[in-house]
Amino acid sequence: MQQTKIVLIICDGMADRPDREHNNKTPLEVASKPNMDKIARDGICGIMNPIGYGIPPGSNTAHLALLGYNPYEYYTGRGPFEALGAGLNLGKDDIAFRCNFATAEKKNNKIFITDRRAGRGEFGMKELGKLLNFRTDDADVVFKASSGHRGVLVLRGKNLSEKISDSDPHSEGEIKEVRPLDDSDAAKRTAQILNKFTERCYEILNRSEIQSERINKGMLPANIILARGAGKTGEIPKFNEKYGLNGACIAGVTLVKGVGRSVGLNIIDVSSATGHADSNIEGKIDACIKELKENRHDFILINIKGTDEISHDGDFEGKVEMIERIDKVLGKLLLSVSENNLNTTIALTADHTTSVTVKEHSGDTVPIAILGDVRTDEICKFSERECAKGGLGVIKGTDLLNILMDLSRRGKKFGA
Ligand code: ZN
Ligand code: ZN
Fold first, then answer.
1. Phi/psi at 102 (5° precision)
2. pTM for the whole thing?
3. Which residues have CB atoms below 5 A from the ion given as ligand 1?
């Protein structure tokens, strides 16, 4: 039999807990979602521990796990994954940070942060970011503004260490002096380099014309960069070497694109795929259909972020609506796969639970349904509690790719 292609649809934070104010139901149990239910009915269902029992996953660690990589081994901090997601290339000795543009004031030679996100006003940040690329005696500095008030910083040079503290004070107030976190010379040096960078940022950004334009528009100056989450990229085996699959990643958020790039998935950019609730999710599905029809990739990961963002806001009705919107575009995918005979195994799941009552990620299991050449079960509804009774039972995040490999006829026999 012919091998099938694999589409893995990850609706970020879609799983939830029952809400007492909504008849003890979860958003998935309330939403009208005929296409998700079709995947459950015609497929095999189960629940999954993205990382481990009771471990609330981050999106990046969960996506690593769902791609078959043990996050405890391969996750090296948020900085490097953000930098990769923003499209920067990382050498193995580079130190990467995630950053915010912020608003600062100097008093008595000390820098005080008055707004940690520079009022979130994005105007001019791309251009301002470009000014922060320069060479010093100690290291090359590479900076790129990413989405909103965020950006990424990479220090490139000899004898650098990621064992340093953040310059971000994580609240308004005096900026933190960066300190080495171990006794190595490299850590001391890197801390100094970052402190100097902060001083220099303040000078460069305040002098810029664009800054004056921001101020003329009544916006807060974006005149300092706060850095945190220092890390190096690790040695991660490439996805195509590990599985022999030519893989692609369709995602709006830098965080997930970074995971995709770290394992060598091709990033397919979709316009207006922002990762917010109003993201162009139809565009993502269209891009996936195009990939399948044009036969370019054997494996496509689609991340839809809006469900997570809404959950953090605690908006139950909004989450139900978002699930219904996702369901509509899934209908398009299912139709196209059957009409065009696109021999495909489709898995639908979430990367973690983000409960609208807790407003945070939690360590609950997530539902999963797989459509393809599977042993179907009795489950007809895609929800946390229905899927728990399904034929897949309880799986671990890092088992998922093996299961999909096997179902798509790529399983490698162990033993004779
Ligand atoms: Zn997530
Ligand atoms: Zn989240």
1. -140, 175
2. 0.90
3. 12, 59, 308, 351
In sequence order, which residues have a C-beta less than 8 Å from that of residue 406 and are 6 or more positions away? none
| Candidate from 119-123, 192-196, 356-360 with smallest mean pLDDT | 119-123
pLDDT digits (tens, 9 = 90+) for 316-329: 999 999 999 999 99
Give the pairing of strands 150-156 and 134-135.
unpaired
| Residue partners of 321: CB distance under 8 A and separation at least 6 | none
Residues with CB under 5 A from ligand 2 (ion): 308
CATH of domain 5-76+234-407: 3.40.720.10
299-304: strand order across its sheet: 266-267, 247-250, 299-304, 5-11, 344-349, 366-371, 44-49, 393-396
Q: 238: which 2 tokens?
A: 């490439």
Q: What is the mean pLDDT of the chain?
A: 95
CA of 360 to the centre of ligand 2 (A): 7
Domains of the chain by residue range:
5-76+234-407, 96-231
243-286 pLDDT, tens digit per residue, is: 999 999 999 888 899 999 999 999 999 987 676 777 789 999 99
